[in-house]
Amino acid sequence: MSQSREQILGSIRRSLKRGPLDTGARSELEERIAEHRRNLVPARAAALPHPAQVDLFRAMAEEVQTTVTRVARVEDVPAAVADYLSQRNLPSRLVMTPDPQLDGIPWQERPMLDIRRGRAEDGDQVGVTACFAGIAETGTLMLVSGAQSPTRNNFLPDTHIVVMRGRQVVPSYEEGWTRLRDAQRGADGRAAMPRTVNFITGPSRTGDIEQRLELGAHGPRRLHIVLIDDEAAS
Amino acid sequence: MQPTSHAFKDNAHQALGNANLQKALALMRSGFPARRAAAVARLPEFEALRDQGKAIKDHVLENLDFYLETFEKNVKAQGGHVHWCRTPQEARDTVLAICQRLGAKTVTKGKTMIAEEIALNDHLEQNGITPVETDLGEYIIQIRKEYPSHIIAPAIHLVKEQIAESFRETHRDLDPARRLEEAPTLVAEARAVLRQKFLAADVGITGANFCVAETGSTVIVTNEGNGDLTQTLTKAHIVLASLEKVVPTLEDLSTILRLLARSATGQEFSTYTTVSTGPRRPEDTDGPGEFHVVFLDNGRSAMLGTEFQDMLRCIRCGACMNHCPVYATVGGHAYGWVYPGPMGAVLTPTLVGVDEAGHLPNASTFCGRCESVCPMKIPLPGMMRHWREREFERQLSPAAYRYGLALWAFLAQRPPLYRFVTGLASRLLGWAGGPRGRFRSLPLAQGWTAGRDMPAPEGRSFMSLWAERQKHRSAA
């Protein structure tokens, strides 16, 4: 296999009519990577003040069949979740990630919600997770994997409820990456990637049968966001 | 799969008479182009992003060895593995060896065109491992024993009645009296059947839309979420990628992602974009225990530095086929291999040889729509012209075509003779056309007259009319 590696790299260099890059050229390319230079970022979200970015995030999410409830305080979250479930006749048994972002929510005020903290399993109907960020540009959620946020919880339950705060809304994917690098930066200054970063824009869908949009192909049929307004009213 | 591109003419002829296919293609013609146009109109920066996306890919191709090595270094740093394969055979054997070492009985698969290119499913089956396609379209064609007719909508050639029939034949343990007339019931049935496959599978195989050198991550873009269940619930995640998928940074990735979904389906962003880096971490409670990236060359490194290098910018959005009048008339299967439409007409001769696939670059009206919608600005018609030239040079085109072209070239280089001969021919045809002024059949032109009449020339050529008009003008 290492023979194939050398042959492929050799073939690339022959086609490009050059040998391996010299140290100068390599360090130029390494620098290009290290500086994380942004290309053109569309003005759609980037040009807006933050409260308007949150509004745009919501509008874009709703365009792709995500539903959004905005609440004023953390204390309002359990009622918002319970109402969402009862209005749609969905079960009140929840699997919730052990994410510390969900810890301060007074779930006990809604004792009808039967909550298990942990990894989702087959048969779990409703899941609650936090998220890393919301991307205003396209109404996209950014979730990262970790001990407290297993990836499968984003995909197995039929209904996925995401609890997030307004300050988690960023204008662009690029801003999401910058925040992730900052959050993941270790003592050595290097930012390690989590195993999985999921960008999720609406519930699962397919157009594979006669190009007709159907929701709930393999992932959740419903995606609901409870958005806590943690900044001055917009 | 064995290519049947040499039979393009027969394939196309059959496609034209296939009522179900024509019904399905009519839906496509009215769908994709309008949705793409609306999405593009909504993003004022779209054209500028195209230029930047093209520049990123060009930069990568000029430094492809560096970016592949950087990607490999970063995959290894996270505990993953990179395998380099020159040929489909090497890639098949590499995947099989991983599956066998893990004692895999079933593997789930997200949509991967590279797996089609290397005919992976057949190889796994021959060695006692069951591959299960999980993209709904791929699943449908797998149970029908077909191959994809479109790179992002593999079952676009089928209507729902055909799919219902295949489900009844395959899902025999379900109630035979169940109703399957409508798309939602078909989707729900596939979801339930495949959910159990996800939970039971040992290894998950996906493709890669991109490989990010900076982080050693692979990226897939789906709408269903099948690629995510495939890689999250299994012991190992195997990623199949061709060499040119690498991009330098997450910022570069973001730029190209803005082009991909809009060009492909007209979505602002696909439902799931997933960035995967290495195996699960020690503290994680789920995720694959192993992470393997299998790189396939299969002739791509030799495309660099040739007139076909630009083709390596392709991000497989399918916009070229969605906007192609030939694809929209004959569908994807007529092209006879994995990649149909204009991008296939350029890529297939490169990968399986111009002897096999020489017809494909001829299956174009050169209308130029493919190039005009390509997010990576690949000059597809220009490259098809290169192939036609090579085909002509290698004397692969039919004799009548070559002699006819040589005769035309001889005349065209001698304008007075050209005018004399064409003038004579048009008078002759005008006379032979008789009072009806058209032909119902003509030797050498049955392809035209089988479907419609050929109008007869009206006796005077444009050149002679022009000359006469100029004379009148100077006289006046």
Description:
- The complex is a heterodimer of chains A (234) and B (476).
- With 234 residues, chain A is of the alpha/beta class.
- Chain A has 2 domains: 2-34, no CATH class; 45-228, NagB/RpiA/CoA transferase-like (Rossmann fold), CATH 3.40.50.10420.
- Chain A contains 6 helices and 12 strands.
- In chain A, the strands form 3 sheets. A 6-stranded parallel β-sheet of chain A has the order 1-12-7-4-2-3, with helices on both faces. A 4-stranded mixed β-sheet of chain A has the order 8-5-6-9. Chain A has a two-stranded antiparallel sheet with strand order 10-11.
- In chain A, strand 5 (133-135) and strand 6 form a beta hairpin.
- The longest helix of chain A is centred in the N-terminal third of the chain and has 14 residues, at 2-15.
- The model of chain A has no long low-confidence stretch (mean pLDDT 95).
- Helices cover 51% and strands 11% of the residues of chain B.
- Chain B is globular and about 95 Å long.
- Chain B has 476 residues and is an alpha/beta fold.
- Among the domains of chain B are: 43-301, Rossmann fold, CATH 3.40.50.10420; 407-475, no CATH class.
- Chain B has 22 helices and 12 strands.
- The chains are: A alpha/beta (234), B alpha/beta (476).
Task: Furnish the topology, listing elements before pairings.
The complex is a heterodimer of chains A (234) and B (476).
Chain A (H helix, E strand, L loop, with lengths): L1 H14 L7 H12 L8 H4 L3 H14 L3 E5 L5 H11 L5 E4 L17 E4 L8 E4 L3 E3 L4 E5 L14 E7 L3 E2 L2 H12 L11 E5 L4 E2 L7 E2 L6 E7 L6
Parallel strand pairs in A: 1-12, 2-3, 2-4, 4-7, 5-8, 7-12
Antiparallel strand pairs in A: 5-6, 6-9, 10-11
Chain B lengths: L7 H9 L2 H23 L4 H17 L1 H14 L3 E5 L2 H14 L4 E4 L3 H5 L2 H7 L3 E4 L2 H8 L16 H11 L12 H18 L2 E4 L3 E3 L4 E6 L3 H7 L3 E7 L3 E2 L2 H15 L7 E5 L13 E7 L22 H4 L4 H4 L10 H12 L1 H4 L11 H5 L6 H14 L5 H14 L2 H18 L5 E2 L6 H4 L4 E2 L6 H14 L1
Parallel strand pairs in B: 1-10, 2-3, 2-4, 4-7, 5-8, 7-10
Antiparallel strand pairs in B: 5-6, 6-9, 11-12
